Each structure stands twice: as C-alpha cells, then as structure tokens.
Amino acid sequence: MEDNEISYSKEEEQKSLLPFLEEEEKEYKAGQFSNVEEHWEEYKLEEELAGGGKIGSKDASEGVRDKSDSSMESLEHYLGNTNNIQAVKYTDRICKSTLQRNLKELNNVAKEKELVVQKTRDKLSTCQLRIKMLEKQLEYVDIEIEKEQEAGNVAALSRLQAMHRRLCTELEKEKDLELKIALTLKENVLEMWQIETEQGKYEILHEQPKKDQEELEMQYQERAKVRIWKEKIAAVQREDDRRSREKKEEEAQKEYEERYKKMLEDAKRNHEKAVYFLRKSMARIHEENAKEEVKTQEHMERRIQAVLSLKNSITSNREKLQTRQVWNKAMASEAKKQEMKMREAILAEGGNVAKEIFLRKRLLEHEKEKQAYREQQKSRKIEIVSQILQEKASIHKQKKSQSCTKAIKGGGKDSLLWRMKTWQYIEKTCKHSAGALSQKSWCSPSACSSAGERTASVGEISEKIPHDVLCEGGEDEKERDRTLVEPEFPGLWSQECDLHKISKEEMDPKQLATRVEKKKKFEKKAQEFQTGIFPKQTVSGHECKGRTFYSKPSCIHFKDFDVGQIYKKKIVLINASYGVNFCRLVGISEWLKDFISIHFDPPGKMSPGMSCEIVVTFKPMINETLEGEVMFMAQTGSFSVPLKCTAKRCILALDKELIDFGSHVVGETISQTINLTNSGALGTRFKVQMSAGDSSTCRATAKSSPGRMVTRHFSDCVPEKKVSNSPVTSVVEKKEQICPDQSEEMTYCAAQVEQQRTETSLSSSSTEQLGQDVLNSRSDLDTDNAHNLVELFPEETPVEIMLGKVTEGEIGPFSSVKLQIIFVPAIPGDVRTEFVIMFDNSDCKPLCFSAIGVSVDVPVWVPNPNIDLKICMYDRLYQDRIVIQSRAKATLRLKFEVCKELSKHMELLPKTGYIQAQSSFSVQLKFLPRYSLPEDAGSYFNEETRILEVPVTILIVDKAKTVNFTVHAIVTTSDLQISPAQINFGYCTIYEAVQANVMLTNKSILPQEFGFVGLPEFVEIQPNDGLGILLPLESLTLDIIFKANKAKEYSFELTCKSEINRQFKLSCKAVGVHPPLELSHSLVRFAATALNSVSTATLYVLNSHMSVNHCTHAVPRIGNGEVAPVGPTSFEFRVPEDCPVTITPSVGTVLPGKKSLIQVSFRPALSDQLIREEAVRRLCRAAATGAEIQKRKKDEKREGKKLSISITRQQSSRQLVRDGDSKYLTSLYSSEQPKSKDLKPDSDAYMAAQAFLMRNFSGRFEKYIIPCFVASGHIDEKKGSENLSCSPYNTLYLEMHCPAVAPSVVVTSDNGKNTVNFGDVAVGHRMIKQITIQNISPEKLELGFSVLNPNGPFLLVRPVGMLEPGENKTLIISFCPNESKWFFEMLDIRTAKTNLTLSITGRGVMPSIVCSVEEELNMGYVIAREKVTSTFKIQNTSTLTLRYSVQLDSLSPTRDKDQQRLPLFITSSLQRTEFVGTQNYNGLSVFSIFPTEGEIVAGKSQDFIVTFSPDHESLYYSDRLKVVLFGKKIAHVIHLKGAARDHPMFVEGGIPLDVPIESLAVTSAVSSQETLKGELQEPVKSILLILEYIEGESSPEPAMTELKVGAIQTAQFASKKNMEFSFDSLPLLQQKGFTVDSVKGTVERGQVKRIAVSWVPPADFDADDPLLVTALLTLKDDIKESYRIFFMAKVVSAYAPTT
Asked: I want to staple 841 with a disulfide (CB 3.0 to 4.6 A). Which of 684, 792, 825, 1436 is the partner?
C-alpha cells in the first residue's frame, strides 16, 4: 500500500514538472541556436577583416569565399553532432532531475519522522515519570491516613482522604495518556521503518551523478578544441588586417597634417576679424556706460544736496528745541525757588502757607483768563478784517467791467468807506466787551486798545496787498461773492454809522508811526510780486535753496485715456521752505484750457512741511497726446507742475533679433520661437514674411569661405543696432524729450535705456557665440567639399529656414505672441534668412530679425563628444562605454586611435569595427593611469590642475573625414601621509593613558576611507576608533592613546589601510611604569556648577603593594628596573595657585593594604582681576559720560549767547569747541582714571561689576591635571616631604573636568549681594527684608528651598514656586532674635541644574534706655487756660538705634470703651486703676508731648517737651505717658499730673475730702460781684490733716504734718500784691495740743509757703477716742477764699501692727 502511494506521488510530481521541463528544453535549444549564430557572426566578421573589406583584388575575395565554404561545412558537421549529443543529454537530464528531487523529498520526510518519534518518546518518558511521582504520593498519603486514624484526628483524616481521591483520579488520567502516547509511538516508528526501506532501494542511484560529471567534462574538452581552432583562423586574419591598417594610417596621417595646416590659417584670419568687430562693439558699450554713469552721478548729487539741506534744518530745529527745553527747566526751577522763598517768608511772618499759596494760584489763573480773553478779542478782530477784505475783493470783481479810472476812484472811496465802518464797529465791540469783562473780572482797559492797534495794522496790510494776489477765477468764487455780499454782522452797513468819525486810537502818534513803517514794508512786497524778483529766504541762518513747493506726484500724468471719458487726479503741494509761505493758482497752458479744469482752495499761509490738495479734471475731446503745465505763484516766486496726457498706442518689441540654430546634420528638423510683445494699451494686426532683399537665398561661392560669409552678414547687422529703428528706442527718445526734469519719467527712461543696453550686450554675446560656432564648424568641414562648392541660383536653392504655423494674427494690448521658426538643413553650409514683421497700425514701424544655421554632412558622430571619466587614481582601472551613431545608408568600417603618448595608459576595444546603416556601435574604453603618466602625456596633462585631456580619433575607411572626441579625466594620487612617522610615548604608568597626536593627510583630491587595523590591546585611536573618511586634501589630527598594561618596554608598529588596500606604517615606542600607589578614580567629572557654588567628589589613594614576588602578581617597578620596596608610601598633591579646586588632605602616608580618603571640591568664581578691570571700565565710562554732559550744557549756554554770529563762523567755532572738548575729556579721563588696586571688595562699583559679569557669564569648561608625587617612607611632620626622594616616573595624575555655568537665578537687589545682613535687631522684635531674585536662564524654573532652623530666628515668610524666563520675584525673610547674640544660617535656592546660596546673618540686641524722670512728672499748679512746659530726657544705652513712639492713655483708641463702664467714684479707691484724670472741656488733650515718635541713635539721647494746658479749674488733671520701642515693647511709663486754678493761690497737703472725679454737670464759679460785696461764702474745700502720735518710744516726738500755701506765677496777676493767708480758731487748737508754725503771713508770686503742724497729746486726752478739731484757713489775693481744715489726732502704739 505504501509503495503504491509513493509511486503515485512520483507520477504526480512528474506531471507537474512537465511544463517546466518543456520550457527548459526550449530555452536550452534557443541558447544553442544563439550560440551557433554568434559563432557564425564572429566567423563572418573575421573573414571580412581578413579579406580587407571592399578594397583588395577579386582573387583574394574568391579565396576567402572558398575558405568560408569549407569552414561552413565543418561547422554544419559540428552542429549536427552537437545536436545529437544534446538531445540525448536532455532526456537523461529530465530523469536525473526528477530522481534527485524525489530523493531529496524522501530524506526530508525521513528527518521529520525521526523528529516526531523523538518528541513522542520524550512525552512518553515524561508521562511515566509523572505516574511514578503520583504513586509515591499515594503511598505517602496512605501512611498519613493510618497515622491520623490512630490519632483520631477527624479533620486531618478528611483532608487526607480528599487528597487520596484526587491523586487516584490523576493517576488514572496519566495511565490513559500513557497508553495513547505508546500507541502513537508505535505508529510513527512503523512509518519511519518504511521510509528507511525506501531509502535503501535508491542507494544505487547516488552513483549516477558521478558518471554524468565525467561526461560533461568530455563535452567541455571537445568545445575547447573547436574554439582553439577558430582562434587560430582569427589570428591569421588579424595579421593581414594589421598590415593593411598600417598603410592606411600613414596615408591618413599625411592628409590630416595638410588639412590641419589649412585649418590653422583659416582660424587665424577669422579670429583677427572677430577681434576687430568685438573691439568696436566694446567701445560703443563703454561710451553708453559712461553716459549712464554721468547721469547717475548727477542724480545722486541732487539727492545728496536735498538730504544735506534736510539735515541742516533738522539740526537747527533740534538746537532750538534743546534751548527751549533748557529755558523751560530753568524757569521751572526758578519758580520752585520763588515758591520755597515765599513759603519761608510766610512761615517767618507766622501766616497760613496754604491760604497764601491758594490765593496766589487764584491770581495766576485770573491773569491767564485775562490773557486768553485778550487773545480771543484779537482773533475776532482779525476775522472781521478778513471778512471785510473778502467783501471788498468781491465788490471789486463786480465792478471789473467798468473803466479802469472809475474802478480806481470807486475802489479808493469804497476802501475809505469800508475802513471807517470797520474801525467804528470794532471800537463799539471792544467797548461793549471790555465793559462786560470789567464787571466780571479785573480786566485792564489797555487790552482793547492794544487789540485795536493790532487790527488796524492788519487792515492797513490788507490794503497794500496786490489785487492779483487776492483775486481767483472760477465758478466757486462767484458763489462765494454771492454769499459775501450780505453783511455778516447785523448793523454793520446801517446808515446810522458816521463815516467821517475817526476814533481817538487812530489819531495816536505812536500808532501812526507804526502804520507808516508797515505800509513801507508792504509796498516793497507788492513791488516784488510785480517784478517777480524775490529775496532769498533765510531762516535760522540757513538759506532756502531749490524749490519751495514740491508736488506729489511730481508730474500729473493721464495715461491711455479714452475720448469722452472724465478723469480726475489729486495732487498734494508741500511747503518745503524754512518759513511760512503761501501759494495761489496762476493758470494752466493755453492749449490745455479746453480739456483741463482745476479745483483749488487757497489754504492761506502754510507752515513748513504743511500741504494742500488740488484736484485736476481731464475731459479729453481729441485722441492726441497733450503736454503742458499748471502754474502757481508763491511768496518766494513762481513754480509749475508738469501735466501730460498720453493717448493709447502700440509699443511693440522682439525679445531677440537673431536666432542662432547652431550646427545640425542634414535631414534633421529644428525649431525655435521668438516672442513679439506689445507693452502698449492699443492692439494691432501683424504679418510675418521674409525680407524682399533676402541675401540668404544665395549660397556661398567657392571663393568665399563660410566663416567670411557669416562675418559679413553680422557686420551688416551691427550698424543697424547702433542706429536702432525699433519702437522701443523711439519711445525712449520721446520720453526723454517730453519730460527730462521729472523724477518718475527719468526713472522710466533709465529703465528703458537699461533694457536697451541689456539687449545690446545680449546681441554682442550672441555675436561672440556665433563667431565661435563658425570657427568650430569651420574646423569640422572637409576641404574637398569646400573646394567643390558651386554657385546656386535662387530658384534652385531649397528653403531651409521657414516660418511655422503662425504667420499673421492679432496682438492685443499688454500681451505677447510666440512665432515659430523652423530650420530643415538640406545642403551642407551656412544659411541665413531675414524676416520682417508688418503691422496694420501706421504708427508702428516694421520689425526685422534674422535666423542663421549651419548644415553638416558628417555620416558618423558621437552623441557625447566629451567623455568625462571624472577623477581617477593611479594604478586603478576605469572603464566607460562610448556610443557611435551613424546616419549613413550603408555599413561603414571604423578605426579607433589614441595618441601615441597615452598608448600605455588608455585603450579602446575593439580597435576596428563595423557600424551598420543608421544604427549605433559601442566601444569599450579602458583607462589605467600609471605613475609615469605626467612624463608620458606631455602637453595633454596639466600638472598643476591634474587635468588630462586625450584626443581620440575615429577614422572612417574610404573617407577623408574623421570624427574626434575627447576623453577628460582628473588624475590624482591615492597616498596617505602620516606625520610624524615615529612616536615615542616615553614613561607611562599603568593607571593612566598617554596621548600623542599624528596628522593624517589625504594627498588625493578624492575622499578616501581609512582605518587602523590590527591594533594591540594597549593602543586606542580616536576619533571613531581610527576609522573614517578623509576629504580631498584634508588633514585630520588623530589621537594615539597608549595605556600600558604592565611594566615593561614597548616597541610596535601601527598599520593604516586605505579603501584600496594600501598600507601605511607608524612606529611607536614606550616604557610602562607600575607605581607603588594607585588612585581609585583618575578622572573626576564635576557636574555643571554655578558661580560661587560648590561641588564635591571623593576618591581613595590605595597601597596594594604587599609582596615583592613578581611571579604571583605584578609588582611596582619602572620598565624592567628594580621592584619598589614594601612599606608605608607617602603621597602629595600639588594644586596650582589659580586653580578653583581644593584637595583635602593634600599630603599623607598610606600603609600596605590600606587606603586614604581624599575629598575634592570645586568652587568656581570670577577672578578678582577681571572684576576690578570691569569696575574700572564702568567707572571710567560713567566719568566720561558725566564730563561730556557737563560740557554739552556749557556748549548749549555758549551757543545761546552767540546766536547772532554768522553760519560759517558758528561752524568753525563749533569745530574748535569740539576739538577742545575732546582734548578736555581725554585729559579728564586720563587724570581721573581710578586704579583697580584701589577698589575695595565691598564697594558699590566692585559689587556692580561682579553682578554684571555674573549675569553675562556664558559658561566655562576647564580641565585640570593635578600631579600626585609618590615616595616610599613616612612623611616627617616637622620636615614634611623634604626627607623623601620620589621618582618623577611614579607620579600619578588626577584629571578633573570642571564645567562652570552662570547661575540660573541671581540676586538683583542690594547690588547682587548673596549675603542678607539684618544687622542689629532688638530682642523680641521682628525685621523683614525683601530679596529680589531673577531668572536669567531661557527656561522656566521650579524653585526649591532648603529648610531653615525651625527653632532659629530666621523665617522664610514668602517662598517662590516658579520663575519665568527673565522674571523677577521677591523673597521675604524675617529675623526675630530671642536672645542677645549673633545668628547665622545658609538658605539654598535649588533649581534643576544649579543652586543659589544665600548667607543670612543678624545679631539680637537687648534694647535699654535711661529716663531722667522715674515714675511721675508733676506739672504743679497752673492758671486755667494757660500753658506750662516741662522737659525730660531719654538716653539710648544700647548699641542699637531705637525706634520709639510716645503714647498717652487719654488718646488711647480703647478709651471710649472704658468710659462706658461705671464711674470710678462709685468704686472704692483700692479698685480704681484709671490713670487718666480730669480732661479739658474743649476736647483737646490736657497733656501734649513733642516729639511723639522717632529714632534714638545708639549712645545718644532725646529731649521730650511736655506741655500742660488746662481749660478749666481742677486739681485732678492726670494722664499716663508710655515710651514704646519698635511699636511693641513699653520701655518706660511716666504718670503726668497737674492742677489748674482760676485764681493764683492754692493750698496743698493733707487729705482732700471732696470727690476726686468731677461731676458730669459743669458748676459755675462764684461771680466776682458777689465776691466784691463781701458776702459770707461757704468754704470751698475741706482738708483733713491726720496726726499720729507714737506712744511707747523711749524719746517720744510730737506728731508732725504740714500744709503748703502757694501763689501761682502768672502774667495775668503780675501787678497785684502778694497773697495773704491766716488761720482762725487758734486758741482751740492750742488747747487741744496742736501747734501751727505760721498762723498768718504773705506769699510772693511763684513761691510756696510750708506751714508745719505738730501735735502732742494733752494730759486729759483719751487714747481710745480720736481728737477732731476744725479751723478755718483764709487766703486773700484777687479774691478771698476759705478752707476748712480738720485736725484729726490719735495715739498709736509703737508695737501695734500698722495697716
């Protein structure tokens, strides 16, 4: 069954392979047939070459035919044999290929089956292993179940039973799977055995391919024999061909030399003629260019003059403006000074400053109002006069038809009449207005008179203005006359006006004198207008040159108009003079009045730079070009604006006048186009035809050469270009004649001339190209054909240059038409045809153009006559394919020749060939340049440019004509130069790499790839690992990096290979050193560190040298020298002075097997010298600027005084002043230049320069290599490293990369200082400082801040989160010290790249003061409504400036709330805490203090003045004064007390028995009348005197107390007598034991009398009952006043406790 299946599959494969096998059979047969054809063609070609082509005898050709016949028979026999062999081979090959394919498939199936069997066996083994594992688990579970059953654990037993069931189920599944896998395995094994039996059947067939291989070799040997036989026949034929070729080459060489001589002679003659005509054309072009340059120079000079005049005017205006500004500033400063003086004067007089200033401002405003009213009156008068003048002009125009004499008389009477009426009306108006104004404000009557004088002068001026200036024509003026006939002011023309009444102002002699002077001035101006001669206008010393009015546009041009239409244009007249000017319209040209109308409103007087508008209307009636001008009259003279109207017309032109087709072969068809362009607004019809007198119909005769003929035609054309008749040229000439002075037309004409000059240059370039083409074509012409030319008649000459489809048509306005010209060469030679374009429009002249071409009859040509091999290298083979085309109708034999000089380097294969009719032929070019090429090539090779040009000749057999083409190549070398050729690296440790630089130069002009190959492991080449490309002639510096891996001497070579496998060697030497110590890191790369920041890195110095045995490990040594000793080894880092790197420790000793920690810090900063130089530069610049400003101010003052000096003198003086200023500034700069050494680091200039450099710091990257010297032994602490000797070859090097960048964030406040110094701050008080930071980076920054000490005094109140680029934000930091000491903290402002560190310092100081008044300040007794002052002093005893404020309780903001409580007299005296006593009724404070706030410098004192000013009588005036420091701490409290009396006497002492708090109701005092009557009054006050006698002492003393009676010193009672006092009831007092010192007496003003009272208990005194006696004290001064005195006495035991 399986055998049947296999056979069936083989049959199917054979059926499927049949179509492919059939195709292979066809291809094989076709290949055999093509091979036979190729052999036959080769054989035929060889026979023809052997026979010598068509040249030779008939016998030779017959012999060749016989040979060819015999060879054909042998070839047919061979072909039949090969066909039989190939037929047999084809059938065998089908069977063999099928068999091999089946065997291969059978092997693949066998391999697949083996793989399947192997996988199945693996699955089976895995399944069996799984079964074993499950069985073991079942056994283990059974054992566990028995144990748990014995133990009686039900829960565990149920769990184990469930696991037993699960394992049993899995075991059954695995056994079923094992049976399935085993069955599958058996089936696969059976199939594999069947496949192996099939393979055994076909083992015999494997020997068959060997036999087939042997048969193929036999066939190849037979083919080789046939090919050798054919080569022998071809060799014989080539020998014959070579001999015949040599003969022909000799003949051709002779002919070529003769022809070459003739060609050189013709070329010289043609070159001389071309040079002659070229010189003529170049001379003409130079003349035209010179003319254009002259015109351009003149135009530029005019523009320069205009710019200079404008510059002068700007300069003068600027000077005036500066002078005005300085004057204004001076006036403002003077006004401020006057105001300050006035304020001081008012204050000195004791007046109210605000009131006086307000009144002064009111007066100034009132003066301004008066001045404005005067100006208003003047303007009204001027308006009235202008209206009257207009009416006068209209009346004069109405009477124009009358005779001149009557008009003059009437005009004189009317003018007198109008003058009288005008002045009367003005006088009335001014009187009424003046009266009204006097009622409203303080106006002086002189204002009206001055205004009247001004108006009168204006009236007289208007009378003297010429009539022509005031009159204007047109319909608008008639309408204006109609409106102005009516009076503008009612009552002005009334009959009531007295015409003969003359005002008093007109009779004033001063006014009459001024009028006479003004009349003379205006008569002079009128004469200037009549004569047309105006004086030069000079303003500010500058004379007005050129036109005073400019029009925009400069020419009024109506282009391309249509009859019947209306066109309007608006122009602007600009006053370009230096002063006020006016203009009026005079008229237009006579021939334009029927077509042009102008609307112009005279603007009156115009300031410089002002403009007015004019509307010009054009109504064309005829279709003709019109030219004229619009005339104006100005104050400085007449001027005009050109006006031009151009009708539609045709402007036709050709883009070129000569069409050069070049050289073409007979039979080709070539076409070119020429553009006819109409740039005008009118279209026309055109027709193109050949010229009637065309000389191109005649061919060149045998006498004249083609070069001569073309030269003659071109010389005929050149003079026509000189005197051009084209429409473009004529239009240009017209343009130049019409408007030579107008800027726009000049620009247009210049553009046209430029276009004409461009066309001339194009025609000259075409002339040169034509001459060159003629020379080239002449060199290619055959001399035989040139001598055999015959003269042809016109009727026999074919038309070779003809027109295309478009010969006539319509060309519209602003459009172009393309005309096609076709060239069909028929006869070899030169052809020229003239064409003429005719137009229907009679104004358009005919246009002519020419077409030329050259016909060539060469039968063979090379499409690419210049073969460019680009750039080639020596000893490299380059190939190219050259295609040759044939236009002949027969087969041609070609020979290819290379010059003898390059025969060793260049070759063409084949050297001889046949080209079929009208087909192509390819030749293989091989170029292998040798190094001897420069010597062999000779003149064909340029050694400087390395360019090779090889002429190659194609010889056509039986033709004298040869075809040449050139092979171009640039030959270059492939050398690579390495310099130096040898490198010595010297001593190099195994921990470092030594770098040497070599220069690799490419000597070639081609890019070359290179690479260093086979590098040893201890050498590295950079960049790009020694691989790369070198550009032409480029030099590349390579870094050869040598890193020794052991201590020994090295000598090796490096090999560099180029892309063409050339090798270049480099010799190297080095000595490896193993030092005793090593660094854990030899390279430290710091992160980008901002200025004034710190970056830190750590590394170790290791001593791993513990044994001298060099067999077990590498030992420290220098090259092959001695081993370093084992023991302590010392090191020392030497850091340069200017290096911003710190190494700690820099010196140390490392024991064997130990290491030492090294810390490296990088702190970038700006150099001190750089900062000082920048600071000096900024100071010098500021000083120079200040000096220049001062000098400029002096110059301005000096120039202000010399305004009357002439312009030339002023300019010279300015120059001298400038020279002197420059010398002065130079001397000032040199003398005051500060020295950089004198600047202090804390100065403002130094800090500003540092901040400027930091902000403009662009970054810096520096590399530092720090040497570490190594020596064996310990370092002595006293002597240092002097006792140790170190070898320089053991030195270690630490390389550091230190990038310094500008900080992203800088401090902009306080001159950019990074230190925040709070200074001295009082303890417990808080000071806040603002620090402004700015983002100077181009990125948005997110800021972070370090944490300050939470228990410290510093606090970051307001941090900043984000900073935009260039943004400024403020940080707020507070300082609140809690003790007296210095505080210091660092605040880091962190960004993504850099950090900014702020140093925060401050000192806490405990404030302390000393007051001259301790607790109470008693102001004493004062007369009510009078004042008394007292002074106390506070001294600052601390080192801090104290900011204080003085507060009174009576002015406390909480006093109103305190008054809402219960009255204090209700509460007990012990509970009373109110310090504020009686207050004034008027609301003002009783006590006032000055100053209330301020600062006390450390160690200084401040005086305070307390003023007591009561407004009514009271004995209980009191207040509390608090001295508060820094708005928080109360440093001192003073109780203020005072008493006020209505009368100058008082009693003080004892205990008052009245209420200390005043009643809410004000009690009226006793009237003085009642006092005078002497009526008995109640005692005013009661006073209690308590006397305590102490009993039980050894020496008892009487009880003592006292009363004070005083008289107040006041100016109110200064003239009265002294005050008197007296006691009543003295006997009773004496009886009770009381003793009074002064019973009666007087007290002077300002004095106080002390009355002492003593008490001794009488004998009958009862100690348990206190004694109370009453007496009356009477005071007499201005009134009589009585006091009831209660004497209370009691006895107190000396041992009794006091309460």
From this structure: 684
**Whole-angstrom Cα distance, residue 1421 to residue 1419?**
7
To the nearest 10°, the Cα dihedral for 1343, 1347, 1351, 1356? -10
1574: left (phi over 0), alpha (psi -120 to 50) or beta: left
Tell me the residue type at 626: L
pLDDT tens string 1193-1222: 888 877 766 554 444 444 444 443 344 444
Q: Which residues contact 567 (CB under 8 A, 6 or more apart)?
A: 558, 561, 617, 618, 620
For residue 1126, what are the contacts with CB-CB under 8 A and spacing of at least 6?
A: 1105, 1106, 1107, 1108, 1152
Q: What's the rounded Cα separation, in Å, for the pair 299 and 199?
A: 108
Q: Which helix (H) or strand (E) holds 749?
A: helix 743-780
Mean pLDDT confidence for 754-778: 39
Q: How many CB atoms lie within 10 A of CB 1534?
A: 20
Residue with tokens 């362009």: 677
For residue 206, pLDDT over 70 is answered with: no
Q: Specify the higher pLDDT residue, 1083 or 419.
A: 1083
Distances (CA, A) of 1645 to 957, 1544, 1603, 1649: 163, 8, 18, 11
Give the separation between CA 721 and CA 759, rounded to whole angstroms: 10
Residues paired with 1117 in a beta bridge: 1074, 1123
- Which token pair is 486? 């009516």
Closest alpha carbon to 835 in 672, 715, 712:
672
User: Mind listing the pLDDT tens digit for each residue in 1023-1067?
Assistant: 999 999 999 999 999 999 999 988 899 999 999 999 888 999 999
> For residue 901, what is the DSSP state?
G
Determine the residue type at 1536.
L
User: Exposed (0-12), middle (13-18) or buried (19+): which is 1264, by Cβ within 10 Å?
Assistant: middle
Please count the CA atoms within 13 angstroms of the CA of 127 that sit on its side-chain side.
19
Q: State the Cα–Cα distance between residues 1229 and 1679, nearest whole angstrom.
A: 86
Alpha-helical regions (H) of 350-403: 353-398
What is this structure's pTM?
0.37
Sheet of 1035-1042, strand order? 976-979, 994-1002, 1035-1042, 1019-1022
Q: Please, are residues 908 and 898 in contact by the beta-carbon 8 Å criterion?
A: yes
Q: Of 645-649, 1238-1242, 1517-1521, which range is least confident?
A: 1238-1242
Q: Which strands make up the sheet holding 1327-1335, listed edge to edge?
A: 1305-1307, 1327-1335, 1368-1375, 1354-1358
Place of tokens 């960004």: 1391
Q: Is residue 1035 a contact partner of residue 1001, using CB atoms and an 8 Å limit?
A: yes
Q: How far is CA 584 from CA 469, 601, 609, 639, 1654, in A?
A: 7, 9, 17, 10, 121
Of 461, 441, 463, the C-alpha closest to 453 is 461
- Do residues 966 and 925 touch, judged by C-beta distance below 8 A? no
**CA 668, CA 665: separation in Å to the nearest integer?**
6
- The secondary element (H helix, E strand) that includes residue 418 is helix 404-440
Task: Tell me if residue 1475 falls in helix, strand or coil.
Answer: coil
DSSP annotation of 903 reads: T
Q: Measure the CA angle with vertex 722, ends 720 and 727; round to 5°.
A: 75
Q: Are 849 and 949 in contact (CB under 8 A)?
A: no
Neighbouring residues of 1082: CB distance < 8 A, sequence distance ≥ 6: 991, 992, 1292, 1293, 1294, 1295
Name 1402's Cβ contacts closer than 8 Å, sequence gap at least 6.
1317, 1318, 1319, 1320, 1321, 1327, 1353, 1354, 1375, 1377, 1382, 1383
Q: How far apart are CA 106 and CA 1203, in angstroms?
A: 124
Burial class (CB in 10 A: 0-12, 13-18, 19+), 866: exposed
